[in-house]
Amino acid sequence: MSVETQNKETLGFQTEVKQLLHLMIHSLYSNKEIFLRELISNASDAADKLRFEALAKPELLEGGAELRIRVSFDKDAKTVTLDDNGIGMNREDVITHLGTIAKSGTAEFMKHLTGDQKRDSHLIGQFGVGFYSAFIVADQVEVFSRRAGTPAEEGVYWSSKGEGDFEVANIDKPERGTRIVLHLKSGEEEFADGWRLRNIIKKYSDHIALPIELPKESHGEEQDKPAEPEWETVNRASALWTRPRTEIKDEEYQEFYKHVGHDFENPLAWSHNKVEGKLEYTSLLYVPGRAPFDLYQREAPKGLKLYVQRVFIMDQADEFLPLYLRFIKGVIDSNDLSLNVSREILQKDPVIDSMKSALTKRVLDMLDKLAKDKPEDYKNFWKQFGQVLKEGPAEDFANKEKIAGLLRFASTQDASGEQSVSLADYLGRVKEGQDKIYYLTGESYAQVKNSPHLEVFRKKGIEVLLLTDRIDEWLMSYLTEFDGKQFVDVARGDLDLGKLDSEEDKKAQEEIAKTKEGLVERLKTALGDAVAEVRVSHRLTDSPAILAIGEQDLGLQMRQILEASGQKVPDSKPIFEINPQHPLIEKLDAEPDEDRFADLSHILFDQAALAAGDSLKDPAAYVQRLNKLLVELSA
Question: What is the pTM of this model?
Protein backbone atom coordinates (compact mmCIF):
# COMPACT_ATOMS: atom_id res chain seq x y z
CA MET A 1 0.00 0.00 0.00
CA SER A 2 1.41 3.36 -1.03
CA VAL A 3 1.27 5.95 1.73
CA GLU A 4 2.24 9.61 1.40
CA THR A 5 4.33 10.23 4.49
CA GLN A 6 6.46 12.91 6.12
CA ASN A 7 9.10 12.82 8.87
CA LYS A 8 9.57 9.08 8.41
CA GLU A 9 11.88 7.35 10.88
CA THR A 10 12.75 3.76 11.71
CA LEU A 11 12.84 2.85 15.41
CA GLY A 12 13.80 -0.33 17.26
CA PHE A 13 11.36 -2.26 19.41
CA GLN A 14 11.88 -2.55 23.15
CA THR A 15 13.72 -5.84 23.90
CA GLU A 16 10.63 -7.33 25.55
CA VAL A 17 8.52 -6.57 22.47
CA LYS A 18 11.06 -8.27 20.19
CA GLN A 19 10.77 -11.43 22.27
CA LEU A 20 6.99 -11.16 22.32
CA LEU A 21 6.82 -10.67 18.54
CA HIS A 22 9.03 -13.70 18.05
CA LEU A 23 6.55 -15.65 20.17
CA MET A 24 3.61 -14.34 18.14
CA ILE A 25 5.17 -14.93 14.72
CA HIS A 26 6.16 -18.48 15.59
CA SER A 27 3.13 -19.10 17.78
CA LEU A 28 1.58 -22.54 17.88
CA TYR A 29 -1.49 -20.98 19.47
CA SER A 30 -4.32 -23.29 18.48
CA ASN A 31 -6.95 -20.56 18.44
CA LYS A 32 -5.59 -18.01 15.97
CA GLU A 33 -8.90 -16.19 15.60
CA ILE A 34 -8.41 -14.47 18.99
CA PHE A 35 -6.41 -11.73 17.19
CA LEU A 36 -9.72 -10.20 16.08
CA ARG A 37 -11.15 -10.24 19.60
CA GLU A 38 -8.05 -8.46 20.95
CA LEU A 39 -8.07 -5.74 18.28
CA ILE A 40 -11.83 -5.15 18.66
CA SER A 41 -11.38 -4.95 22.44
CA ASN A 42 -8.69 -2.26 21.98
CA ALA A 43 -10.97 -0.34 19.58
CA SER A 44 -13.82 -0.51 22.13
CA ASP A 45 -11.50 0.93 24.80
CA ALA A 46 -10.56 3.76 22.41
CA ALA A 47 -14.26 4.61 21.95
CA ASP A 48 -14.82 4.56 25.72
CA LYS A 49 -11.93 6.95 26.25
CA LEU A 50 -13.26 9.37 23.64
CA ARG A 51 -16.73 9.36 25.24
CA PHE A 52 -15.21 10.23 28.60
CA GLU A 53 -12.90 12.99 27.33
CA ALA A 54 -15.76 14.45 25.26
CA LEU A 55 -17.77 15.08 28.46
CA ALA A 56 -15.39 17.95 29.23
CA LYS A 57 -14.44 18.73 25.59
CA PRO A 58 -17.40 18.07 23.24
CA GLU A 59 -15.34 19.44 20.34
CA LEU A 60 -13.32 16.18 20.35
CA LEU A 61 -16.30 14.48 18.71
CA GLU A 62 -15.66 16.66 15.63
CA GLY A 63 -19.35 16.61 14.78
CA GLY A 64 -19.54 12.80 14.74
CA ALA A 65 -20.92 11.44 18.01
CA GLU A 66 -21.89 8.03 16.60
CA LEU A 67 -19.07 5.70 17.62
CA ARG A 68 -18.49 2.39 15.82
CA ILE A 69 -15.95 -0.22 14.78
CA ARG A 70 -15.72 -1.36 11.17
CA VAL A 71 -14.14 -4.62 10.00
CA SER A 72 -13.53 -5.18 6.28
CA PHE A 73 -11.44 -7.45 4.09
CA ASP A 74 -9.93 -7.70 0.63
CA LYS A 75 -9.57 -11.24 -0.70
CA ASP A 76 -7.37 -10.21 -3.60
CA ALA A 77 -4.96 -8.15 -1.46
CA LYS A 78 -5.20 -10.71 1.40
CA THR A 79 -5.87 -8.01 4.00
CA VAL A 80 -8.18 -7.55 6.98
CA THR A 81 -8.85 -3.97 8.12
CA LEU A 82 -10.22 -2.69 11.45
CA ASP A 83 -11.31 0.93 11.56
CA ASP A 84 -12.58 2.75 14.68
CA ASN A 85 -13.53 6.39 15.25
CA GLY A 86 -12.43 6.44 18.88
CA ILE A 87 -9.85 8.60 20.63
CA GLY A 88 -7.00 7.79 18.20
CA MET A 89 -3.28 8.29 18.77
CA ASN A 90 -0.69 10.96 18.02
CA ARG A 91 2.92 10.22 17.05
CA GLU A 92 4.12 9.99 20.65
CA ASP A 93 1.24 7.66 21.58
CA VAL A 94 2.01 5.37 18.67
CA ILE A 95 5.70 5.09 19.54
CA THR A 96 4.90 4.51 23.22
CA HIS A 97 2.00 2.08 22.86
CA LEU A 98 3.13 0.10 19.82
CA GLY A 99 6.87 0.07 20.49
CA THR A 100 6.96 -0.88 24.17
CA ILE A 101 4.98 -2.98 26.61
CA ALA A 102 4.06 -0.11 28.89
CA LYS A 103 2.88 -2.02 31.92
CA SER A 104 4.26 -2.89 35.33
CA GLY A 105 5.26 -6.51 35.51
CA THR A 106 6.91 -6.58 32.07
CA ALA A 107 10.13 -7.95 33.52
CA GLU A 108 8.12 -10.64 35.33
CA PHE A 109 6.41 -11.50 32.05
CA MET A 110 9.72 -12.02 30.27
CA LYS A 111 10.98 -14.08 33.21
CA HIS A 112 8.06 -16.47 32.82
CA LEU A 113 8.62 -17.13 29.10
CA THR A 114 9.67 -20.78 28.90
CA GLY A 115 10.45 -21.35 25.26
CA ASP A 116 7.41 -23.62 25.04
CA GLN A 117 5.50 -21.53 22.50
CA LYS A 118 2.11 -23.11 23.10
CA ARG A 119 2.39 -22.51 26.85
CA ASP A 120 3.93 -19.05 26.49
CA SER A 121 1.11 -17.87 24.26
CA HIS A 122 -1.24 -18.16 27.27
CA LEU A 123 0.77 -15.45 29.03
CA ILE A 124 -0.06 -12.85 26.40
CA GLY A 125 -3.47 -11.82 27.69
CA GLN A 126 -2.25 -11.38 31.24
CA PHE A 127 -0.04 -8.49 30.17
CA GLY A 128 -2.49 -6.44 28.12
CA VAL A 129 -0.44 -6.82 24.95
CA GLY A 130 -3.28 -7.93 22.71
CA PHE A 131 -2.27 -5.68 19.79
CA TYR A 132 0.72 -7.90 19.08
CA SER A 133 -1.59 -10.91 18.60
CA ALA A 134 -2.12 -9.47 15.08
CA PHE A 135 1.23 -11.04 14.17
CA ILE A 136 -0.21 -14.52 14.73
CA VAL A 137 -1.94 -14.19 11.33
CA ALA A 138 -0.18 -11.22 9.67
CA ASP A 139 3.36 -10.82 8.37
CA GLN A 140 2.95 -7.03 8.16
CA VAL A 141 0.74 -4.69 10.18
CA GLU A 142 0.03 -1.06 9.25
CA VAL A 143 -1.62 1.46 11.55
CA PHE A 144 -3.12 4.82 10.47
CA SER A 145 -4.23 7.00 13.38
CA ARG A 146 -5.10 10.55 14.41
CA ARG A 147 -5.91 11.69 17.90
CA ALA A 148 -9.28 13.41 18.27
CA GLY A 149 -8.95 17.21 18.38
CA THR A 150 -5.69 17.40 16.42
CA PRO A 151 -5.40 18.70 12.79
CA ALA A 152 -5.70 16.27 9.86
CA GLU A 153 -2.01 16.75 8.96
CA GLU A 154 -1.01 15.37 12.40
CA GLY A 155 -2.13 11.89 11.47
CA VAL A 156 0.46 9.19 12.05
CA TYR A 157 1.46 6.05 10.18
CA TRP A 158 3.07 3.00 11.84
CA SER A 159 4.22 -0.14 10.08
CA SER A 160 6.13 -3.27 11.04
CA LYS A 161 6.86 -6.74 9.74
CA GLY A 162 7.26 -7.95 13.31
CA GLU A 163 11.03 -8.08 13.19
CA GLY A 164 13.49 -5.82 15.02
CA ASP A 165 12.06 -2.43 14.13
CA PHE A 166 9.07 -0.39 12.99
CA GLU A 167 8.50 2.67 10.80
CA VAL A 168 6.65 5.75 11.96
CA ALA A 169 5.75 8.83 9.91
CA ASN A 170 3.27 11.71 9.70
CA ILE A 171 0.36 11.50 7.25
CA ASP A 172 -2.82 13.41 6.43
CA LYS A 173 -5.80 11.67 8.01
CA PRO A 174 -9.11 13.57 7.80
CA GLU A 175 -11.01 11.21 10.18
CA ARG A 176 -10.11 10.79 13.84
CA GLY A 177 -9.49 7.28 15.21
CA THR A 178 -7.38 4.30 14.19
CA ARG A 179 -7.30 2.04 11.15
CA ILE A 180 -5.28 -1.19 11.35
CA VAL A 181 -4.47 -3.13 8.18
CA LEU A 182 -3.31 -6.73 8.56
CA HIS A 183 -1.44 -8.25 5.61
CA LEU A 184 -2.21 -11.91 6.09
CA LYS A 185 0.50 -14.55 6.07
CA SER A 186 0.46 -17.23 3.43
CA GLY A 187 -1.96 -19.87 4.66
CA GLU A 188 -4.08 -17.45 6.70
CA GLU A 189 -6.28 -16.27 3.81
CA GLU A 190 -9.32 -17.87 5.48
CA PHE A 191 -9.66 -14.66 7.55
CA ALA A 192 -10.23 -12.53 4.42
CA ASP A 193 -13.78 -13.82 4.33
CA GLY A 194 -16.99 -12.11 5.44
CA TRP A 195 -18.66 -15.24 6.80
CA ARG A 196 -15.56 -16.17 8.84
CA LEU A 197 -15.15 -12.66 10.30
CA ARG A 198 -18.86 -12.41 11.08
CA ASN A 199 -18.75 -15.68 13.05
CA ILE A 200 -15.66 -14.68 15.02
CA ILE A 201 -17.29 -11.37 16.00
CA LYS A 202 -20.53 -13.11 17.09
CA LYS A 203 -18.51 -15.63 19.07
CA TYR A 204 -16.12 -13.31 20.91
CA SER A 205 -17.34 -9.73 20.65
CA ASP A 206 -21.14 -9.81 20.73
CA HIS A 207 -21.04 -8.12 24.14
CA ILE A 208 -19.14 -5.03 22.91
CA ALA A 209 -21.40 -2.06 23.66
CA LEU A 210 -20.95 -0.22 20.36
CA PRO A 211 -21.76 -1.35 16.82
CA ILE A 212 -19.26 -3.60 15.04
CA GLU A 213 -20.01 -3.22 11.34
CA LEU A 214 -19.12 -5.36 8.31
CA PRO A 215 -19.82 -4.57 4.65
CA LYS A 216 -23.26 -5.87 3.70
CA GLU A 217 -22.73 -8.81 1.38
CA SER A 218 -24.77 -8.98 -1.83
CA HIS A 219 -26.52 -12.23 -2.69
CA GLY A 220 -27.26 -13.63 -6.07
CA GLU A 221 -25.33 -12.39 -9.08
CA GLU A 222 -21.92 -10.85 -8.48
CA GLN A 223 -22.19 -7.07 -8.73
CA ASP A 224 -19.55 -4.41 -9.04
CA LYS A 225 -18.42 -3.28 -5.60
CA PRO A 226 -19.80 0.17 -4.80
CA ALA A 227 -17.24 2.89 -4.03
CA GLU A 228 -18.57 3.09 -0.45
CA PRO A 229 -19.88 -0.22 0.92
CA GLU A 230 -23.16 -0.45 2.77
CA TRP A 231 -22.42 -1.36 6.39
CA GLU A 232 -24.43 -3.60 8.70
CA THR A 233 -24.07 -4.19 12.44
CA VAL A 234 -23.24 -7.81 13.30
CA ASN A 235 -23.18 -7.69 17.10
CA ARG A 236 -25.87 -6.87 19.68
CA ALA A 237 -24.18 -3.50 20.38
CA SER A 238 -25.68 -3.27 23.86
CA ALA A 239 -23.83 -3.31 27.18
CA LEU A 240 -23.99 -6.91 28.44
CA TRP A 241 -24.43 -5.89 32.08
CA THR A 242 -27.62 -3.95 31.23
CA ARG A 243 -29.36 -7.07 29.90
CA PRO A 244 -31.45 -9.37 32.16
CA ARG A 245 -29.45 -12.29 33.61
CA THR A 246 -31.94 -14.80 32.21
CA GLU A 247 -31.05 -13.72 28.67
CA ILE A 248 -27.27 -14.07 29.04
CA LYS A 249 -25.51 -17.37 28.37
CA ASP A 250 -22.50 -18.52 30.38
CA GLU A 251 -20.35 -18.26 27.23
CA GLU A 252 -21.30 -14.58 26.90
CA TYR A 253 -20.34 -13.87 30.52
CA GLN A 254 -17.03 -15.65 29.95
CA GLU A 255 -16.21 -13.73 26.79
CA PHE A 256 -17.09 -10.43 28.46
CA TYR A 257 -14.69 -11.31 31.27
CA LYS A 258 -11.88 -11.87 28.77
CA HIS A 259 -12.62 -8.40 27.42
CA VAL A 260 -12.64 -6.54 30.76
CA GLY A 261 -9.97 -8.72 32.41
CA HIS A 262 -7.59 -8.82 29.43
CA ASP A 263 -7.34 -12.55 30.06
CA PHE A 264 -7.33 -15.58 27.78
CA GLU A 265 -8.78 -17.96 30.38
CA ASN A 266 -12.32 -18.31 31.71
CA PRO A 267 -13.14 -16.87 35.16
CA LEU A 268 -13.85 -19.17 38.11
CA ALA A 269 -17.07 -17.39 39.06
CA TRP A 270 -19.11 -14.25 38.45
CA SER A 271 -21.94 -12.28 40.03
CA HIS A 272 -24.33 -10.06 38.06
CA ASN A 273 -26.56 -7.86 40.16
CA LYS A 274 -28.86 -4.86 39.73
CA VAL A 275 -29.56 -2.71 42.80
CA GLU A 276 -32.64 -0.48 42.90
CA GLY A 277 -33.98 1.75 45.66
CA LYS A 278 -32.01 4.27 47.67
CA LEU A 279 -28.96 3.53 45.49
CA GLU A 280 -29.20 2.47 41.87
CA TYR A 281 -26.36 0.66 40.17
CA THR A 282 -25.51 -2.52 38.30
CA SER A 283 -22.43 -4.62 39.00
CA LEU A 284 -20.86 -7.52 37.14
CA LEU A 285 -17.96 -8.97 39.15
CA TYR A 286 -15.59 -11.78 38.23
CA VAL A 287 -13.16 -14.04 40.11
CA PRO A 288 -10.20 -14.73 37.77
CA GLY A 289 -8.74 -18.21 37.45
CA ARG A 290 -5.13 -17.03 37.54
CA ALA A 291 -3.25 -14.35 39.45
CA PRO A 292 -1.45 -11.70 37.36
CA PHE A 293 2.30 -11.52 37.91
CA ASP A 294 2.01 -7.98 39.28
CA LEU A 295 -0.54 -8.87 41.99
CA TYR A 296 1.89 -7.85 44.75
CA GLN A 297 3.21 -4.69 43.06
CA ARG A 298 1.71 -1.62 44.68
CA GLU A 299 1.68 0.41 41.46
CA ALA A 300 -0.04 -2.36 39.49
CA PRO A 301 -3.41 -1.38 37.96
CA LYS A 302 -6.42 -2.60 39.90
CA GLY A 303 -10.10 -1.84 40.27
CA LEU A 304 -13.32 -2.04 38.29
CA LYS A 305 -14.35 -0.41 35.04
CA LEU A 306 -16.63 2.45 36.07
CA TYR A 307 -19.56 3.60 33.96
CA VAL A 308 -22.08 6.27 34.86
CA GLN A 309 -25.40 5.88 33.06
CA ARG A 310 -23.60 3.61 30.56
CA VAL A 311 -20.92 6.22 29.80
CA PHE A 312 -17.38 4.98 30.45
CA ILE A 313 -15.64 7.02 33.18
CA MET A 314 -12.46 5.20 34.17
CA ASP A 315 -10.62 1.93 33.71
CA GLN A 316 -9.32 1.20 37.19
CA ALA A 317 -11.72 2.61 39.76
CA ASP A 318 -10.16 1.10 42.90
CA GLU A 319 -12.44 2.89 45.39
CA PHE A 320 -15.26 0.34 45.11
CA LEU A 321 -13.50 -2.66 46.66
CA PRO A 322 -10.96 -2.97 49.51
CA LEU A 323 -7.32 -3.66 48.66
CA TYR A 324 -7.49 -7.32 49.72
CA LEU A 325 -10.03 -7.91 46.90
CA ARG A 326 -7.86 -6.20 44.27
CA PHE A 327 -7.87 -9.33 42.11
CA ILE A 328 -11.60 -8.95 41.33
CA LYS A 329 -12.36 -7.78 37.78
CA GLY A 330 -15.58 -6.37 36.36
CA VAL A 331 -17.85 -3.44 35.72
CA ILE A 332 -19.94 -1.11 37.83
CA ASP A 333 -22.53 1.18 36.22
CA SER A 334 -24.07 3.77 38.53
CA ASN A 335 -27.01 6.14 38.22
CA ASP A 336 -26.04 7.97 41.42
CA LEU A 337 -22.74 9.54 40.41
CA SER A 338 -22.25 12.61 38.26
CA LEU A 339 -20.88 12.17 34.75
CA ASN A 340 -17.93 14.46 35.43
CA VAL A 341 -16.85 12.29 38.37
CA SER A 342 -13.16 12.47 39.31
CA ARG A 343 -10.97 10.47 41.67
CA GLU A 344 -11.13 13.31 44.22
CA ILE A 345 -14.94 13.20 44.19
CA LEU A 346 -14.90 9.39 44.39
CA GLN A 347 -12.77 9.49 47.52
CA LYS A 348 -15.15 11.90 49.30
CA ASP A 349 -18.58 10.70 48.14
CA PRO A 350 -20.58 8.83 50.87
CA VAL A 351 -22.43 7.00 48.07
CA ILE A 352 -19.13 5.28 47.25
CA ASP A 353 -18.82 3.98 50.83
CA SER A 354 -22.29 2.42 50.63
CA MET A 355 -21.53 0.84 47.26
CA LYS A 356 -18.13 -0.40 48.47
CA SER A 357 -19.70 -2.06 51.49
CA ALA A 358 -22.38 -3.79 49.39
CA LEU A 359 -19.94 -4.89 46.66
CA THR A 360 -17.50 -6.28 49.23
CA LYS A 361 -20.24 -8.43 50.77
CA ARG A 362 -21.28 -9.57 47.30
CA VAL A 363 -17.73 -10.70 46.47
CA LEU A 364 -17.39 -12.55 49.80
CA ASP A 365 -20.74 -14.27 49.19
CA MET A 366 -19.60 -15.22 45.68
CA LEU A 367 -16.41 -16.78 47.11
CA ASP A 368 -18.39 -18.59 49.79
CA LYS A 369 -20.71 -20.05 47.13
CA LEU A 370 -17.70 -21.09 45.03
CA ALA A 371 -16.18 -22.86 48.05
CA LYS A 372 -19.42 -24.76 48.77
CA ASP A 373 -20.52 -25.59 45.23
CA LYS A 374 -17.18 -26.05 43.44
CA PRO A 375 -14.52 -27.05 46.01
CA GLU A 376 -11.95 -27.92 43.30
CA ASP A 377 -12.30 -24.46 41.73
CA TYR A 378 -12.03 -22.88 45.18
CA LYS A 379 -8.84 -24.87 45.78
CA ASN A 380 -7.43 -23.31 42.61
CA PHE A 381 -8.62 -19.85 43.74
CA TRP A 382 -6.92 -20.32 47.11
CA LYS A 383 -3.59 -21.26 45.49
CA GLN A 384 -3.72 -18.13 43.34
CA PHE A 385 -5.17 -15.54 45.75
CA GLY A 386 -5.13 -17.00 49.27
CA GLN A 387 -2.29 -14.82 50.56
CA VAL A 388 -4.05 -11.68 49.30
CA LEU A 389 -7.30 -12.69 51.00
CA LYS A 390 -5.32 -13.08 54.25
CA GLU A 391 -4.84 -9.31 54.22
CA GLY A 392 -8.60 -8.98 54.80
CA PRO A 393 -9.03 -9.35 58.60
CA ALA A 394 -6.62 -6.44 59.20
CA GLU A 395 -8.26 -4.22 56.60
CA ASP A 396 -11.95 -5.04 56.92
CA PHE A 397 -13.07 -5.37 60.54
CA ALA A 398 -16.77 -5.46 59.61
CA ASN A 399 -16.33 -8.62 57.52
CA LYS A 400 -13.64 -10.30 59.62
CA GLU A 401 -15.74 -13.38 60.46
CA LYS A 402 -16.87 -13.81 56.85
CA ILE A 403 -13.29 -13.58 55.56
CA ALA A 404 -12.10 -16.01 58.25
CA GLY A 405 -14.62 -18.55 56.98
CA LEU A 406 -13.00 -18.36 53.54
CA LEU A 407 -9.43 -18.95 54.78
CA ARG A 408 -7.75 -22.30 54.28
CA PHE A 409 -4.95 -23.86 56.34
CA ALA A 410 -2.70 -26.89 56.49
CA SER A 411 -3.30 -29.00 59.58
CA THR A 412 -1.98 -31.96 61.58
CA GLN A 413 -5.12 -33.82 60.42
CA ASP A 414 -3.99 -33.80 56.76
CA ALA A 415 -0.59 -35.29 55.95
CA SER A 416 -0.58 -33.78 52.42
CA GLY A 417 0.48 -30.37 53.72
CA GLU A 418 -2.05 -28.62 51.44
CA GLN A 419 -3.89 -25.55 52.69
CA SER A 420 -7.30 -27.18 52.43
CA VAL A 421 -8.78 -27.08 55.95
CA SER A 422 -11.41 -24.41 56.67
CA LEU A 423 -12.17 -23.18 60.17
CA ALA A 424 -15.61 -24.79 59.85
CA ASP A 425 -13.88 -28.13 59.07
CA TYR A 426 -11.68 -27.67 62.14
CA LEU A 427 -14.56 -26.86 64.47
CA GLY A 428 -16.47 -29.87 63.16
CA ARG A 429 -13.67 -32.12 64.47
CA VAL A 430 -12.86 -30.52 67.86
CA LYS A 431 -12.48 -32.80 70.88
CA GLU A 432 -15.16 -32.77 73.55
CA GLY A 433 -14.41 -29.95 75.98
CA GLN A 434 -12.16 -28.10 73.48
CA ASP A 435 -12.99 -24.39 73.47
CA LYS A 436 -9.93 -23.09 71.58
CA ILE A 437 -8.59 -23.19 68.01
CA TYR A 438 -4.93 -24.19 68.18
CA TYR A 439 -2.35 -23.15 65.61
CA LEU A 440 1.41 -22.99 65.05
CA THR A 441 3.32 -20.65 62.71
CA GLY A 442 6.65 -21.38 61.08
CA GLU A 443 8.88 -20.96 58.02
CA SER A 444 7.90 -24.19 56.26
CA TYR A 445 5.49 -27.09 56.49
CA ALA A 446 8.38 -29.52 57.09
CA GLN A 447 9.54 -27.44 60.05
CA VAL A 448 6.16 -26.99 61.76
CA LYS A 449 4.82 -30.51 61.24
CA ASN A 450 7.83 -31.89 63.16
CA SER A 451 7.86 -29.18 65.82
CA PRO A 452 8.19 -30.34 69.44
CA HIS A 453 5.36 -27.92 70.25
CA LEU A 454 2.94 -30.44 68.74
CA GLU A 455 3.94 -33.40 70.91
CA VAL A 456 1.24 -33.09 73.56
CA PHE A 457 -1.37 -32.40 70.85
CA ARG A 458 -0.43 -35.60 69.01
CA LYS A 459 -0.61 -37.55 72.24
CA LYS A 460 -4.13 -36.24 72.97
CA GLY A 461 -5.32 -36.36 69.32
CA ILE A 462 -5.98 -32.60 69.15
CA GLU A 463 -5.84 -31.00 65.68
CA VAL A 464 -3.51 -28.01 65.21
CA LEU A 465 -3.53 -25.63 62.23
CA LEU A 466 -0.09 -25.23 60.62
CA LEU A 467 0.56 -21.72 59.26
CA THR A 468 3.63 -21.25 57.07
CA ASP A 469 2.96 -18.20 54.83
CA ARG A 470 5.05 -15.12 55.60
CA ILE A 471 1.88 -13.16 56.31
CA ASP A 472 0.42 -15.65 58.82
CA GLU A 473 1.72 -14.33 62.13
CA TRP A 474 0.64 -10.82 61.14
CA LEU A 475 -2.78 -12.23 60.12
CA MET A 476 -3.25 -13.93 63.50
CA SER A 477 -2.55 -10.69 65.35
CA TYR A 478 -5.88 -9.47 63.87
CA LEU A 479 -7.77 -12.76 63.75
CA THR A 480 -8.30 -13.47 67.45
CA GLU A 481 -11.46 -15.61 67.37
CA PHE A 482 -13.90 -17.43 65.10
CA ASP A 483 -17.42 -18.58 65.92
CA GLY A 484 -16.87 -17.64 69.56
CA LYS A 485 -13.70 -19.71 69.95
CA GLN A 486 -10.33 -18.04 70.60
CA PHE A 487 -7.21 -18.75 68.57
CA VAL A 488 -4.24 -19.99 70.62
CA ASP A 489 -0.65 -20.09 69.38
CA VAL A 490 0.72 -23.36 70.79
CA ALA A 491 4.25 -21.88 70.88
CA ARG A 492 3.26 -18.82 72.88
CA GLY A 493 2.90 -18.25 76.62
CA ASP A 494 2.02 -20.89 79.21
CA LEU A 495 0.00 -23.57 77.40
CA ASP A 496 -3.33 -24.24 79.08
CA LEU A 497 -5.41 -27.03 77.53
CA GLY A 498 -8.34 -26.25 79.82
CA LYS A 499 -10.82 -29.14 80.03
CA LEU A 500 -8.66 -31.23 77.70
CA ASP A 501 -6.35 -31.81 80.67
CA SER A 502 -7.91 -33.92 83.43
CA GLU A 503 -7.61 -32.89 87.08
CA GLU A 504 -5.24 -35.86 87.55
CA ASP A 505 -3.02 -34.56 84.71
CA LYS A 506 -2.89 -31.07 86.21
CA LYS A 507 -2.07 -32.40 89.66
CA ALA A 508 0.71 -34.60 88.30
CA GLN A 509 2.18 -31.63 86.38
CA GLU A 510 2.26 -29.52 89.55
CA GLU A 511 3.96 -32.27 91.56
CA ILE A 512 6.64 -32.85 88.89
CA ALA A 513 7.27 -29.09 88.65
CA LYS A 514 7.90 -28.98 92.43
CA THR A 515 10.44 -31.78 92.26
CA LYS A 516 12.40 -29.93 89.56
CA GLU A 517 12.53 -26.49 91.21
CA GLY A 518 16.24 -26.94 91.97
CA LEU A 519 17.04 -27.86 88.34
CA VAL A 520 15.04 -24.85 87.09
CA GLU A 521 17.09 -22.52 89.30
CA ARG A 522 20.39 -24.05 88.13
CA LEU A 523 19.31 -23.59 84.48
CA LYS A 524 18.37 -19.94 85.11
CA THR A 525 21.82 -19.31 86.50
CA ALA A 526 23.58 -21.17 83.68
CA LEU A 527 21.63 -19.54 80.82
CA GLY A 528 21.50 -16.07 82.42
CA ASP A 529 20.39 -13.28 80.05
CA ALA A 530 19.68 -15.69 77.17
CA VAL A 531 16.22 -16.52 78.58
CA ALA A 532 13.27 -14.65 80.05
CA GLU A 533 12.26 -17.64 82.16
CA VAL A 534 12.91 -21.36 82.70
CA ARG A 535 10.06 -23.70 83.56
CA VAL A 536 8.84 -27.27 83.40
CA SER A 537 6.95 -27.93 80.15
CA HIS A 538 3.48 -29.40 79.68
CA ARG A 539 3.93 -29.40 75.90
CA LEU A 540 6.58 -32.09 75.52
CA THR A 541 6.40 -35.88 75.42
CA ASP A 542 9.48 -36.84 73.32
CA SER A 543 11.86 -33.84 73.13
CA PRO A 544 14.09 -32.72 76.01
CA ALA A 545 13.49 -28.95 75.72
CA ILE A 546 11.67 -26.28 73.79
CA LEU A 547 11.55 -22.48 73.39
CA ALA A 548 8.25 -20.73 73.97
CA ILE A 549 7.41 -17.11 73.08
CA GLY A 550 6.15 -14.61 75.64
CA GLU A 551 2.47 -13.66 75.33
CA GLN A 552 3.25 -10.11 74.17
CA ASP A 553 6.46 -10.84 72.24
CA LEU A 554 6.91 -10.94 68.46
CA GLY A 555 7.11 -14.39 66.95
CA LEU A 556 9.93 -15.56 64.69
CA GLN A 557 8.06 -14.79 61.43
CA MET A 558 7.34 -11.17 62.39
CA ARG A 559 10.88 -10.64 63.66
CA GLN A 560 12.33 -11.87 60.36
CA ILE A 561 9.94 -9.70 58.29
CA LEU A 562 10.85 -6.58 60.30
CA GLU A 563 14.58 -7.34 60.13
CA ALA A 564 14.39 -7.92 56.36
CA SER A 565 12.71 -4.54 55.90
CA GLY A 566 15.37 -2.79 57.99
CA GLN A 567 13.08 -1.97 60.93
CA LYS A 568 14.20 -2.08 64.53
CA VAL A 569 13.00 -5.24 66.28
CA PRO A 570 12.03 -4.92 69.96
CA ASP A 571 14.23 -6.90 72.33
CA SER A 572 12.66 -10.08 73.67
CA LYS A 573 13.93 -13.31 75.19
CA PRO A 574 12.43 -16.78 74.86
CA ILE A 575 11.06 -18.97 77.64
CA PHE A 576 13.09 -22.19 78.04
CA GLU A 577 10.87 -25.17 78.86
CA ILE A 578 12.22 -28.59 79.84
CA ASN A 579 10.70 -32.07 79.72
CA PRO A 580 11.49 -33.41 83.21
CA GLN A 581 10.94 -37.05 82.18
CA HIS A 582 13.40 -37.01 79.27
CA PRO A 583 16.65 -38.99 79.87
CA LEU A 584 18.81 -36.02 78.84
CA ILE A 585 17.12 -33.76 81.39
CA GLU A 586 17.48 -36.46 84.07
CA LYS A 587 21.22 -36.73 83.28
CA LEU A 588 21.52 -32.94 83.30
CA ASP A 589 19.85 -32.83 86.70
CA ALA A 590 22.36 -35.35 88.01
CA GLU A 591 25.42 -33.48 86.62
CA PRO A 592 27.56 -32.33 89.60
CA ASP A 593 30.12 -30.25 87.61
CA GLU A 594 28.68 -26.75 87.20
CA ASP A 595 30.89 -25.85 84.18
CA ARG A 596 29.84 -29.01 82.35
CA PHE A 597 26.23 -28.38 83.44
CA ALA A 598 26.42 -24.89 81.87
CA ASP A 599 27.83 -26.26 78.59
CA LEU A 600 25.12 -28.94 78.38
CA SER A 601 22.42 -26.35 79.21
CA HIS A 602 23.60 -24.06 76.38
CA ILE A 603 23.71 -26.98 73.92
CA LEU A 604 20.11 -27.91 74.80
CA PHE A 605 19.06 -24.26 74.51
CA ASP A 606 20.66 -23.89 71.06
CA GLN A 607 19.12 -27.16 69.85
CA ALA A 608 15.69 -25.91 70.97
CA ALA A 609 16.29 -22.70 68.98
CA LEU A 610 17.18 -24.71 65.86
CA ALA A 611 14.07 -26.91 66.27
CA ALA A 612 11.99 -23.70 66.38
CA GLY A 613 13.47 -22.58 63.04
CA ASP A 614 15.56 -19.79 64.57
CA SER A 615 19.20 -19.03 63.84
CA LEU A 616 21.80 -19.26 66.59
CA LYS A 617 23.11 -16.06 68.13
CA ASP A 618 26.62 -17.56 68.45
CA PRO A 619 27.02 -20.62 66.18
CA ALA A 620 30.77 -20.87 66.88
CA ALA A 621 30.18 -21.23 70.64
CA TYR A 622 27.58 -23.95 69.95
CA VAL A 623 30.06 -25.90 67.79
CA GLN A 624 32.84 -25.55 70.40
CA ARG A 625 30.59 -26.85 73.19
CA LEU A 626 29.35 -29.73 71.04
CA ASN A 627 32.90 -30.70 70.00
CA LYS A 628 34.03 -30.58 73.62
CA LEU A 629 31.18 -32.91 74.59
CA LEU A 630 32.00 -35.32 71.73
CA VAL A 631 35.67 -35.45 72.79
CA GLU A 632 34.63 -36.22 76.38
CA LEU A 633 32.29 -38.99 75.21
CA SER A 634 34.94 -40.58 73.01
CA ALA A 635 37.65 -40.43 75.70
Answer: 0.76
